[in-house]
Amino acid sequence: MSAGSAGSAAAPCRFAHYFVICGIDTETGLEPDQLAELCSYSSGEQRTGRKPFLYQNCENLEQSPLKRTFRSKVLARYPENVEYNPFDQNAVNMLCMPKGLSFRTQADPRDPQFHSFIITKEDGSRTYGFVHTFYEEVTSPHICSAMQTLYQMHNAAHGTANPPPPSSSSSSSSSMDSLASSSYDSSRDTLYVSKALCLITPMPYMQACRSYLAQLHKAATVKTAPPLPLESYVYNILYEVPLPAPGRSLKFYAVYEAIVCQRPGLGELPLADFSLAEAFSLLGIENLVQVFTCTLLEMQILLYSQDYQRLMTVAEGITTLLFPFQWQHVYVPILPASLLHFLDAPVPYLMGLQSKDGSDRSKLELPQEANLCFVDIDNHSIELPEDFPQFPNKTEFIQELSDVLHSFAISANAGAPPHCPSGSPNTPSTPPKEKTGPFALLQLEDDGRNGNLIGEELATLELLQGNSTLERLQALTKRTGVTVAQIEALRDRIKSQPTAENESWTPSFEEELAHAKLNVQLREVFANRFTTMFADYDAFVIQSAPDLESWLTNREQMHNFDKASFLSDQPEPYLPFLSHFIETQMFATFIDNKIMSQWEEKEPLLRVFDARLKKSHLYNIRATSLRSSNYQRCSTLKETAQAVEQKLLRINHRAVRPHLLDMKIGQGKYEQGFFPKLQRDVLNTGPPLNKWPQRTATAQCRKDWNIQRIDNDNDLKERHVQDARGLGKNLRQPKLSDLSPAVIAQTNWKFVEGLLKECRMKTKRMLVEKMGREAVELGHGEANITGLEENTLIASLCDLLERIWSHGLQVKQGKSALWSHLLHYQAFEDKLEQQQLQASSPGGTETAKHNMIHSTEQYINTFTIITLWSGEIKTDVGRARAWIRLSLERKLLSQHLKQLLTRQALTRKLYKRYAFLRCEEEKEQFLFHLLSLNAVDYFCFTSVFTTIMIPYRVVIIPIKKLSNAMTTSNPWVCVSGELGDSGTMQIPKNVLEMTFDCQNLGRLTTVQLGHDNAGLLAKWLVDCVMVRNEITGHIYRFPCGRWLGKGVDDGSLERVLIGELVEPCAEEDCGRGCRTPPQLCSPSQTRRIKPTSAQIQEAIGEAVNCIIKHFHKPEKERGSLTVLLCGENGLVAALEQFFHHGFKSAWLFQKTVFVWDFVGECETETTELLAMTWQSLCRYVNAINSTPRNIGKDGKFQLLVCLGARDHLMAEWLPLLVGSPVTPRMYEDAAPLRDHTTVGTLIGVLETLHDFPITLEASLVKGVNL
């Protein structure tokens, strides 16, 4: 067995996997880091439009040598390799020193710094690194001479003969390269270089590792040598300190002070050791909640700070609070200089970028900002994306978090320095006071648990204390006054030594305990919000697959969660956030884990969350709050804090103390102030049989080994799961170990494939869901999409298009890459048109010019419309999204984007070769997927931009064969929609077409058309009215087919027409879409055919049923009630058929008789009846007759039915009409109105409407005073 493998036999159970030393390699000398200038480029130092300046001939004469960044190397690592966690040298070196080596002189600050990092592998597993960086004096004459030479070259290049004396910088030490002196003289100055000690661990024990590394570094710098060689302490942490068992605490020993850590149990929140108090203090509560919301919605999040540890603290704090969900995308809390190109990734990410001291945020240009949440940690500010939904109960949530922080005496204001009762988490913990050598050696000699020495006295006392017989004898001697002198002396001596509890209770331990309690309480508050919002989520999980294999095979075709039903069960204020959140990858993965749990073991976070829900259901917490937005505070804060405190105080396991190793004479010596190279032969090989002192650790090791073996066996299944889940984890992490051009190209190709797949999935989802609703209108099934959900899908499509247009940009201009491209295209077209006009002859090129203008006319129209609204839509991102929505509503999105990409010269100028928009095959597939959206109708622009002014065109089409095309009267029109009406507008005489501007009316529902009956030709037979929205291009047809005039038809001078959407039929629009089921149109005399009595009853029942369904939909999804009342198949039309059926022939009355004539006769002959019901009917009839509107007899009957339905009186009026003496005179015996059974059934159907508040449009009840 090799040394590396020997030391890794129990790696899954070890506290630390590697101990690493990074620094300068004196053999290779100074190697400038050619990637350093990329950091300067990202910090806004170079904004000239040219590529970042790289070192040439390994030298950069522009910058002071001490401020340059040189390449660091891994000087040593112990052990060489761990089987379960292979060492990634490039990644570790890059993250230990993200900006390379840093040099200082004696005049510069050289305080040690601490930061942590994380390496996320392609399978999603994480490894944590904890780094202690300090400065060592450079003793190599070659390095000092090289630095002196670089300064001479630098001074010669700048003409500086006498460099200025060094000056100390007062800036933050976190930005190391900005603090270096401006000069160096080897004869006068002492040169120092940065060096890093690093622990690589499988779990994030940040506080413990921080304390351990600080003590280890101190041991190498203090005058008094530590009790043991440094190899003993490193060997101990690598091979003899186990991970704590779940639910247990562990105490192990560093150089000067013991360290205590704990691991949550299987039913508790997972381990999180990064200080949430610091994260809240850096950002402020409200800002952190906003960033947390952006993370939940899987936006692009960029953290920005000079301090690496601040980046990690905020990143880990936010992801920790996501429980029970997990971040599924790119996660790089510290982005090295070599990976700055990854900011171009067109996927959600959470990354951290180091800022330079004094750098200006306004100069930092990022590849894409349309969906970016920028977090400036040092300045305590954030920049949020547009159209950002708020977290539910945000105000109450922030108040509860403030109360928790105040209970620990921590300020909740942004920018306040983090404060804890026992110290500051913002600064490194102060190392404990140094213990003297003899005292520490005495501890080792007296420790009976040490594997190297035997302590007889402690063993004797433990024997006495563990023997019940001896304890009873001792108690008896005390009662009799006799003392056992040797035993009492032994007890006093042991008491004088620090016990485990007393030794642990130090200021640093108090600080750690306070942080642990605060962390768990804050996390409980966040977890409680998800427990409340998703208390019944499992009721909406769709588990239709019989086995795991079939589910994996058909994953993409399956609906795993009933989103529409889930949203309908939520309180109204929660919907904007939840409708976006349930579309995220992290929620999809959560539901996938839930479904797979029926065939295999539950994922740990899901297991904990389900256990919490089960406990809350036992107490019926959710039952009283169903569909209620009342805020519920967390009730378990005290219990969880006590549990953490008990685990830290009651230590379950103590690791073996560091001890002398089998080292050769002379090994282990070191020079003060220099951290030595440790003995490789001692540290690369662990103990042959590594037995932990307790069985729990052995059992845990065996369990971890089995889990690892099972994971290896299931690699194929895991890859299948990831493929089924789509984009998520296969684009999760960049490879830090290989940065070759081939790997970067492969990564970009994965992005292209991922974007195309995401486009296919989104368009398919939008198409299927939308057609599902239209299938309902055709009578097939039930709708499974709501308007809120539809708007979420379209917003997601806008985000996707922005990410596609941001991928591979050459130069970033503005926050919206798509709008920037549109502006470039417009400028390009204008320039091309001018050139063609100047170069064209009067004859030959006229046709070509006409074709060119015609091909871009629709695109320019859409672009110009959005540009004209620049005053109302104030940002580039808003304009781009408005352009997308308008193009989609006009069914021109694919056509517009295709036209935009036809100018390949422009595309090559704006985009790099690997960009998505320059991949021809993928681009064609992308446009084809967008073209499929033309099969359905969207109103995504009309329904969102509700306050803009829109021009409408009205065309009145008369029936010329039967009447005059014009009328001598003064016609007028009023157009109404879901958002309002235009008001009454006069139509100029002898004009059948007019245009008017009005605030967005939404989808049009009714048109009121009439005239004043003036002149000789006052009669007007109108076929229909056409109204066109000049912005969206939607055309509505309002059928009429009736006369308007006195003494003709029913004498109406005014009619209310119900509209239908007309599909375009022009040649240029033939390929845009397909037929969508029309809205219901206006009733007309042509529909008056004689149906049977059964058909009439069925029509009434269907009309009432549609109204009831209308009220069972969410309020924002109900549409127009006027259509259901007055449309072709509405309630008015059905009741009119009921009253017309069995009417005696018109020749009997010598005139055309209408239903309103029957109602009027009933009202006239029953005025002497004083019944309250009759009085109400008479009052309504009189009010309608006295209205100043000339709506005709059919219009009056329509108004009576609408008012009766609104006031729930129709079921009471019907028996009165049946019992009226007028009924036998005007109806035949077989009429349904004279059939008591039919009438009774009809009354029962109408009574079902009494439970619903019916509100009528103003266009229906105008002029009626009731």
TrEMBL record:
Top-rank taxon, per record = Eukaryota
What is this protein identified as? DENN domain-containing protein 5B-like
* Alphabetical list of SMART domains matching this protein: dDENN (SM00801), DENN (SM00799), RUN (SM00593), uDENN (SM00800)
Q: Does the keyword Repeat apply?
A: yes
Which compartments does it reside in?
Answer: Membrane
PANTHER family reported in the protein's UniProt record: DENN DOMAIN-CONTAINING PROTEIN 5B, PINSTRIPE, ISOFORM A
Q: Which residues form the RUN domain?
A: 788-946, 1122-1261
Q: Which Pfam families match?
A: dDENN, DENN, PLAT, RUN, uDENN
Where are the annotated segments for Disordered?
A: 156-184, 415-435
Q: Where is the PLAT domain?
A: 950-1058
Gene (UniProt): dennd5b
Its GO CC terms? membrane
Q: State the similarity comment.
A: Belongs to the RAB6IP1 family.
| Domain UDENN residue range list | 54-601
Question: What GO molecular-function term can you cite, just one?
Answer: guanyl-nucleotide exchange factor activity
InterPro entries this protein is in?
Answer: cDENN_dom, dDENN_dom, DEN5A/B, DENN_C, PLAT/LH2_dom, PLAT/LH2_dom_sf, PLAT_RAB6IP1, Run_dom
Query: Which keywords describe this protein according to UniProt?
Result: Guanine-nucleotide releasing factor, Membrane, Repeat
Query: Mostly located where?
Result: membrane
Show the ranges annotated as biased composition (Low complexity): 168-184
